[in-house]
Amino acid sequence: MDVDTGRVLWSLNPHRAVPIASMSKMMTLLVALETIEFHHIPLSRTVTVSNSAVQVTPTIAGLRPKDQLTLASLLQSTIVKSANDCAQMTAEFFGGGKAAPFIAAMNRKAKALGMSQAVFFNPHGLPAQQNNRASCEEMVRLGTALMQHPLAREWVSRQKITFTKKGAKSVLFYNHNRLLKSKQCPGVNGIKTGFTQRAGFCITANCERDNHHLMAVVTGCPSQRDRDSLVKKLFNWGFRRLDK
């Protein structure tokens, strides 16, 4: 989609709701950032890790009960590392100790964005009896809303971050999005990858070149290579079409 005009350049089953795996964390971050802005919560606020958050696996930041870290580090790890334990802890922090109120806020935000088919059962996207789901068209809406937040734009473009817990050595976390800084597809600066067996390899990708702005969402790919190859083709074709 051409984000500047809202014009869809190419689509295939864009309105079919499908599992979205870790792309769910885009909504987790959006609701968290809006809550921070509304209540003027400092990113330096200390978060103490719960017993329940550490039980969420795989793809974890290695949180342990009673670990302490800043809110900024928690959110960055959620969106860059795609740490499921951090996503769960984010929901519990903003939900007053329970994830359920935060998940309800995620679903309210989805409705406010016009994501009528979207539903969130957890803040991380791991499969359970029911999967977080949305259509590709709805994920573009979510991606567009998220990229309006300066902190989100900064964080999703990072290839790596430094993760720090109180009293522990810092470690580097690397972004799962290998399209960032791609020579074959310049201009990619986000947003979020995902994978589960039910969702396949998926991504919501943002790309900006020469004052043009495209966003692409693909789901259900059989491999990371296939997913990234398709996104590169879509972006390179799309920008050539805009230039013409």
Explain what the structure shows:
The radius of gyration is 17 Å and the shape is globular. The chain starts with 17 loop residues before the first strand and ends with a helix. The chain is built from 7 helices and 9 strands. Strand 8 and strand 9 (212-221) form a beta hairpin. The mean pLDDT is 97. The protein has one domain (18-243): DD-peptidase/beta-lactamase superfamily (Beta-lactamase, 3-Layer(aba) Sandwich). Helix 1 (25-39) packs parallel to helix 5, helix 2 crosses helix 3 and helix 3 (84-94) crosses helix 4. The chain is an alpha+beta fold. The relative contact order is 0.17. The strands form 4 sheets. The protein has a 3-stranded antiparallel beta sheet, with helices on both faces. A two-stranded antiparallel sheet has the order 1-4.
Topology readout:
Layout: E1 18-19, H1 25-39, E2 46-48, E3 68-70, H2 71-81, H3 84-94, H4 99-112, E4 133-134, H5 136-146, H6 150-156, E5 160-163, E6 171-174, E7 188-196, E8 200-209, E9 212-221, H7 224-243
Antiparallel strand pairs: 1-4, 2-3, 5-6, 7-8, 8-9
Quick synopsis:
The protein has 244 residues and is of the alpha+beta class.
Judged by helices, strands and strand pairing, the structural class is: alpha+beta
| H/E element sequence | EHEEHHHEHHEEEEEH
In the CATH classification, which architecture applies?
3-Layer(aba) Sandwich
- Average residue-wise pLDDT: 97
Please report the distance between the alpha carbons of the first and last residues: 16 Å
Strand composition percent: 15-25%
Shape estimate: globular
Fourth-level CATH superfamily:
DD-peptidase/beta-lactamase superfamily
The number of helical elements comes to 7
Rg from C-alpha positions?
17 Å
In CATH, the topology is named Beta-lactamase
What does the oligomeric state look like here? single chain
Total count of strands: 9
Strand order of the largest sheet: 7-8-9
Give the C-level CATH assignment. Answer: Alpha Beta
Low-pLDDT residue intervals, each spanning 5 or more residues: none
